[in-house]
Amino acid sequence: MKKRVALILLAVFMMVFGIYRGEMAVVFNKAVNICLECIGIG
User: Fold this and answer.
1) Residues 5-34 pLDDT 10s
2) Secondary structure of residue 1 in the 3-state scheme
3) Cα angle vertex 10, ends 9, 11, to 5°?
């Protein structure tokens, strides 16, 4: 049970750290480009 809570807290910390570094915008931009390529617009 303690390992599960520790892993969840670590995962949340890593997500917050990634958002703080601006990684969310990079991932979102790549996802939009891939989506537009699949549709045939980009």
Assistant:
1) 999 999 999 999 999 999 999 999 999 999
2) coil
3) 90
pTM for this structure? Answer: 0.62
Chain centre distance of CA 3: 23
What three-state secondary structure class fits 41?
Answer: coil
Compute the distance between CA of residue 8 and CA of residue 17 in angstroms, rounded to an integer: 14
Record the tokens describing residue 15, joined without a space.
């997500």
Q: Indicate the angle between helix axes 23-39 and 2-21, nearest 10 degrees.
A: 80
Which tokens in the block code for residue 29?
Answer: 């931009």
- How is residue 19 written in tokens? 């958002």
